[in-house]
Amino acid sequence: MRRSCISTAEPSALDSVLRDTCHVRLVEVRAVRRRELVVDLTRPGERDRLREVMAVRSLAGLACACMGDVRFELLDERRERVAVVLLHHGITLAWGDWDGHGVLADGRALLRWLDEQGLAQRQTGKAEAPSWNEVADGLLNA
Fold first, then answer.
1. Most CB atoms closer than 10 Å: which of 8, 24, 50, 133?
2. Where are the domains positioned within the chain?
């Protein structure tokens, strides 16, 4: 994986990487039946929309010990991986270039985006799995 030459001390560093991302592979991490899909960001407005919903408000200086919920593999025009970002609990992102997690500016917006891409239901093994929006509501209103 290619390492970014961008200073990573700032929450906005991820946005700089997203500017050069052409595709993103989404992988459900803890799903019973792991789903994976690739989203084409080359259509007008798609990359900017992802940059908007993955905007980070601050670096929390803490890290969750779980494996995360969704892995975002950011790919360049040759579909080579340039970065991997993990969504944790609908509210933070883990990226290897940061110390700790980044707190999303709007976790619900990213969860809605995932829902629009086809990751609508968490596969928890229950008959009626909650939607990403229900997960966000539970976590963000706790």
1. 24
2. 13-140
